[in-house]
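Q: Hi! First time asking for a complex rather than a single chain. Here are the components, and I think there are two in total. Is that enough to go on?
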Amino acid sequence: MDEVVERAKESGRRDGPRRIAVAGALDVSLLEAVAEAGRQGIVEAHLVGDRDKILGLWEKLGIGGEEPAVEDVAGDEEICHTVAGLASEGAVDIVMKGFISTSLILRILLSGEYGLRRKRTVSHTAVLGIPGYHKLLIITDGGVVIRPDLEQKCDIIENAVEVSRALGVERPKVVLLGASEVVNQHSGELMESATLAKMCRSARMEGAVVDGPFSFDVAVSRDAAEFQGITSEVAGDADIIAVSSIEEGNIISKTIIEFAGAIFGGLIWGLRLPVSLVSRSDTRMNKMAALSVAAVVSSQLLHEA
Amino acid sequence: MGDPVRTFEELRNRAQTVVGGLGPLRLVLVAPNDADDLEAVDAARRLGLVDPVLVGDREQAEAAAGGLGLDLSTTELVEETDMRSAVRIAVELVCADTRAILMRGRIPVSQMMQVVLEDGSRLRVHGRLLTHVGIFQIEGVPRLILVSDGGMVAAPDLGQKIGIIENAIAVARALGNERPRVALLAAVETVYPTMPVTMEEAVISKMGERGQIKGAWIDGPLSLDVAVSEHAAQQKGVGGDVAGRADILIVSQIEVGNGMYKALVSFAGARAVGLVVGGRYPIVVTSRSDTVGNKIDAIAVACLLAGG
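A: Yes, that's all I need. Here is the structure of the assembled complex.
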């Protein structure tokens, strides 16, 4: 994940800091992370919310430096509308969901009036830096789509592939997660993964390689793959793990974050600009990582445009 | 019951103390052709925990033992090369004893369970579900964490989920935790009509509150961080008897439990064992990532579950 922060600094030097609208900025470690990312030239923050309270907290924390730009808006719904307006006008490159309801901000960002929807399915990717894994790992979708059907699952994978490529992976390797490698006609999940793996081999998923169902250890460990006698370039070397329910993605990601000391950045993808997600209990380091991930992919979008 | 067991070291000691007073349990290992399995069973025998009998192919068992320099000539072995028959014989042998454990050797779980679950199987208890429980010792966590069901019931309905919870509570109690804290895991800690899992978990929480599921504190939906971390629970303002202090984590899909098990072992260096419980006797179901040490731990847990 350090590499992502470095890359974000590099993008900042090249393209200028990414302009980020922060909804719900009344959070100690979020403000600290925003200030730090600002000092490093990664982002330029537009905070949206109660100006007095936000600046009061900024002062109290003794962050110093230049006072951030704060758009004085009261009420969560109004904050979301203001942020969506900024995004729609092209005044910002990234939206950050701070301490505000995810479903509220998504509903407003995706409402027709702002024209921010780019893809049919909007999904969540958790970008994880895990000690002991040789690269970043994306788990999707543990945040937006509750129980994707086959078509949505394809869209979710496509979104994650875009994120992974924007983070510098040329040909992302996607694992469809299952509880087993043996396709069993009594398990809908395993059947679906097998169908999906076939579908994804067709033209649709160009630039990525998709395989499964594999269980988690086969996805991330060559030894486990070998033990199971699996030969696939994806096994043991996954860039992306696609799951079949919001619970599966959320709980497995949090298990890794909580117990394996992973650093992560959450991203919602499928809008005209990336939406970065942090939760109140995330550490400052996590919030910094989330900002960096968003800045890197946003810079990449700029170059593709 | 004493204090709850917090580590596998304590657990082995507890098992040795309890079993020591009563004599070793019968352990039936089916398909005994894996060297690690044989080594673990032999170690458990030397600890005084079990009196093993092997059921399977003698030639293969001897080949596996030979590599370890282990002599099987004094170990009871029932020769049976057909795997289905071997499982049937193993079940009969286990059920012939009052204190016994069944252990899976090198045979696919699905193949073994087909026989164990077949109608009239003496291992089943009427009205009780056979479920998988994973037990984890994780660095920095001052208690053992139980996860269920990541191995047996693929997509449990409400009734099956209650069975899964009851079995996990029984395991926690056998490990000395008189009133475990059960977290019903979801992606969030609020109830949403669009998320069926959260609604089902709200129902189960209420059932727990009304004493319809006994011997535990039960709460959900809870996200994983809120369930296990006091810091996260506090930050997110979630109170109750379970948040931040969960001993048992209940998941709603086999993929979740299975993924957690493997993520904990792969990335968090967790020490883990897996068992199938809810039958007349516990079944030790080791996983491909298990070391000999894990397997000895699993046998020790099974000893405590089988009543010492």
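A: The domain at 1-118+271-305 of chain A is CATH 3.40.50.10950 (Rossmann fold). Let me know if you'd like any chain examined more closely.
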